Request: fold
Amino acid sequence: MSRLALVLATANPDKVAEITAILSTSESLELLARPAEVEEVEETGATLVENAGLKARALCVATGKAAVADDTGLEVDALGGAPGVYSARFAGEGATYADNVVKLLGELAALADEGGERRARFTTVALVTFPDGQEVWAQGNVEGRITAEPRGTGGFGYDPVFAPDEGDGRTFAEMSIEEKHACSHRGRAFRALAKVLAERPTDRM
Ligand code: IMP
Reply:
């Protein structure tokens, strides 16, 4: 079977590592490294689909090859769905993962860690742009809650304060990477994307 080669449009090394691991079992997809000379794409879209599209399109145009992007947001019910599409810069432009976690816990400090007030979900949109302008995307979600304190050293971003409902109370940062991928937003989005791509007519590859 011929494999569909996709240029990785994400510049975030943590996301690159996860996407590579999730798709490593796919026999129909091959990932190509993001050319270092392509500038980072500004995420000016209002939705995850728009931002993923901006990134994938930029790398597709730069390389002439199909490109795949991931855009992810954390929605916290008590914050009206924030940080959402602004998850990367919740604590301001150039914020670190730790800055964003501190800001999130600060905003939730007044709320009890029970009764659903700390309910949250991660959503990932995984999107491919083809050189002919066609686009295909899939979404993955995971429901959970924001913990009172950071726990664990694995993962990245908000992982130390996100405990998925499907687990045993541990945060993503306390799980093995395989456990995270089995139920994570990114695992679900990329497995769904691989399925949609595998079912496409081959003349689109
Ligand atoms: P992006 O806009 O898709 O690059 O990601 C937004 C932000 O969400 C990142 O900077 C991280 O802080 C956070 N994030 C993305 N994916 C994950 C994840 O799998 N776990 C925890 N945080 C994540």
In short: The longest strand covers residues 135-146. The chain has a mean pLDDT of 93.
